[in-house]
What we know:
By secondary structure, this protein is mainly β. It folds into two domains: about 5-180, no CATH class; about 180-225, no CATH class. Helix content is about 15%, strand content about 45%. It contains three helices and 16 strands. A 14-stranded mixed sheet has the order 2-3-4-1-8-7-6-5-9-10-11-12-15-16. It has a two-stranded antiparallel ribbon with strand order 13-14. A hairpin with a 4-residue loop joins strand 11 and strand 12. The longest helix is centred in the C-terminal third of the chain and has 11 residues, at about 195-205. The protein is globular and about 60 Å long. The model is unreliable at about 1-40 (pLDDT under 50).
Amino acid sequence: MKKILFTLLLFTHFFALSQQRVGSGFSVIYGKQRLDLTKSIDEEGEEVEGKPFVVETFLPANVKGYDGTFLLRYNAYKDEMEFEKDNDIHFLVKTDSSEVYFLNSKKRYKILEHKFNDEITNGYLVVISENEKISLYKKERIKLIPKVYAANSYKSDVPAHFEIQKDAFFIKKENSIIAFPNSKKELIRMFPDKEKQIVDFLKSNGLSFSKESDLITIVTFLNTI
């Protein structure tokens, strides 16, 4: 069955008192609150194995700018915050100030402009360490692997499936968010005037550029020099 995807600006109660047309979408009044929606159809495709979520369960979360707690989950494939009502999936509208805080995991997602694979995009990043000078974020990624048809009758098709990818880490310096350096050489290139301090620090601590805990340590250090 096709799912109807709604883009929501605000949501609180689950009963609509009235409805009116607004531009290409419509507005639903929930008590004293107004819910603006844009409706689109998610085309039905072939079956896909696996799930597009790091955590499939809807969990309690706060949304910046709105009162109350909502049950949400992050769709890492679509880069959307979802909630469910009447068996339909709804998306929280993305704005430059969008911020979602999951209470149980204490994980905070923010919509941020960042550069990845030579493209500038606006999307959800998980806040790892946020500071005045240097900040650290990560992108949770899930990829859709297309179906592979059997080359001959002796083999079986490999169904399309979702596959969790390695987290991508980002560093914010001044007003730019870019991929975290993959090596000491790349890090020094970002901070050429701090070369000696960086070399000495990395050498004495034996840090890796692939471990989240080590990246946190590096960013903490960068904020002190």
